[in-house]
Amino acid sequence: MRVLQIVLSAALALTLAACATVSAPAAPPQALALWYDRPATDWEREGLPIGNGAIGAVIMGGVSAEHLQFNEKTLWTGGPGSVEGYDYGLPDGPIVDAVRAAQADIDREVRIAPEAMAERLGRPTIGYGHYQSFGELVLEMAHGAGATDYRRELDIGQGVARVSYVVDGVRYRREYFASYPDGVIVVRLTADQPGRIAFRARLDVPENRSVQRDHDGARVFASGALNDNGLLWEAQFALTSENGETISSADGVTLHNADSATIVLSAGTNYAPTYPAYRGEAPHAAVTARVLRAAGRGYRRLWDDHEADYRELFDRVALDIGGAPSALPTDRALAAYQGGASAEDRALETLYFQYGRYLLISSSRAGSLPANLQGVWNNSATPPWNGDYHVNINLQMNYWLADPTGLPETNAPLFDFIDALVAPGEQTAQRIFGAEGWTLSLNTNPWGFTGLIAWPTAFWQPEAGAWLAQHYYDHYRFTGDERFLRERAYPVMKGAAELWLDALVVDPRDGRLVVSPSFSPEQGDFSAGAAMSQQIVFDLFTNVAEAAEIVGDEAFAARVNTALSRLDPGLRIGSWGQLQEWKLDWDDRTNEHRHASHLFALHPGHQISPLTTPDFAEAARVSLNARGDGGTGWSKAWKINFWARLLDGDRAHRLLGEQLRASTLPNLWDTHPPFQIDGNFGATAGVAEMLLQSQNDEIHILPALPAAWQQGAVSGLRARGGVTVDIRWSSGAADEVALTTAHAGEVVLRSSLFEGAFTLVDARSGASVTVSGEGARRSFRTAAGGRYRLRPTLSQ
Ligand code: FUC
Prior knowledge:
By secondary structure, the protein is an alpha+beta fold. Helices cover 32% and strands 23% of the residues. β8 and β9 form a beta hairpin.
């Protein structure tokens, strides 16, 4: 095992060395750390998150006591067992007739107010539930509270949090990390003098559940069931120490006179993603096995495996846009940024970009639920929006960065989750539209909720299934994994398309196929064929038609192509030059609503591009200017992506600045407000879009580089087609581009380097590569496992 690991890391080192021909940004380790000179007092603003996907914790770093609040992602109230006849939000009986009547009224009256529509089609939510805090691991230190030389940090380069301080001349240190390989949170306490580690450890759990407590030596467990739905839960920690004495009971462990101590903590529930029961094995055996195994392995091995696992993902992308790491603690560096231009801005922007990747690795790993509105971190029994999965932008945004920033594996929980929504989503398709296929609406939870709520401005979003299906096809486009396409993506995409093949209606105004009722999130009236509805269905149909050809389902491709030829594509330029949000020109120039849903075609869709559809791109620009640069954190993050797609790097950068200035907490969490993690993820995706795009069958190098990033380097970004891209630039233009190609094929590359004298070589043989095309856009053949380097001729 150990030997294997060394071989693997040697192989990784070789790969990294091979990739290092573009001078990889060598940021000093401290550059990628958030740090503070005080303990946190406010969980939301200052707590530092760690996580392994399933389990998360927030470090407060108190001197006399640590309150390590932790979560396990499946601990939810609601669902089966919570209320009599929990029904996944499905309408009581089929509402197909009510939907048809609404369509007829829309055909006649053109627009219907959301309140009236919610009354007709909406329904009260019952048994929806909330994501829960699991509890706190509390460590009460024996030493005094008067600390000096205090530092609390989150090193995102290594995936570890640290606290260090001096009390009575003794230097105390703590390390905290969440191990994916071992399934535990690890806390390590040391001191620079022997025998000084002394504390009491206990588990606190909220009152909304039954609790039994027990212990086996210094392994302490608490278990029970949620009052709400009977979901079984269990948390355990085990304490090991070097020297020292322990006194244990079911209420906790007291440690005296130790040189060091290690605590491993794990938690679980009997949740299983199985419709309709959603219950699996009691968590006791799995939690016990994880804790016993981890406690027996010892700190060093836990750390080595965690670091290797974390860095294998994190180290894939390096970014250097200049700027020395701040000499200021992160809260003050952020305040300086918020106060105006400072020399350290670039380092903060880099840290913020990489923090999005850190947060995704920490909140989305195979085997658990996807990252929710707060990732995995929640300290409340009633978090905002239930801490759920909103699917009219939020869940999708959480995953925009996964493929482009080299973290394809983090998609696994998203795909598992969506797969599990198909069965209840088929009921929804039948009951609401009398249609084949599957879908859901505004929001969902781990209990297969695919039905409707009654909130007028947000209850109707039946295109959500089609939007989620986009992630499957895009993952295929990034990786070229045809098996994934056949076995996972295509069935889900086909089901999403079947719904719309059945549910689209003919618009009597022009004979085109439209969604009706259609609603543009989360404003305006109900109508037929709002831009976003049409653009999402267009995106799905074009993707599924392509996919059907690849998997050999020609009959379905033909059906979809026929519908596509009659589909209203949802693109119209209105009276003030804007891209219309609705089929009729109702757009109000003064509307600054946070959603800009009609720009889906620009991002994350790819119907609009300044390079191929300049008129629509200009209209999108007009709409975006009218919406302004404000909004919630996620709204600003989306706007970074929009402006990057409009190839306006300075404006994208301005939005990144807006996000850091007005929507970012001292711990660099994004705010809605309150804390909502989608903006972190969306902004990281946006920065990647500024540096590299690949949505239109070409790889575009530095498509939206802002003037503020005059020189820099990025390595490891991914482009569609299985291409990994490294870029070095100065004076705002590329100096060198290196591509690593996973598959043989043709690459179309757009780069300013092609506009001067250039050399393109096969980096392995040194042979020059034949290119075709002209101007900035050229194409060439690549080999599987190939590496190609493009430079200006003069620099050779
Ligand atoms: C959508 C947004 C809200 C919020 C919620 C979780 O409904 O309009 O702003 O982000 O999701």
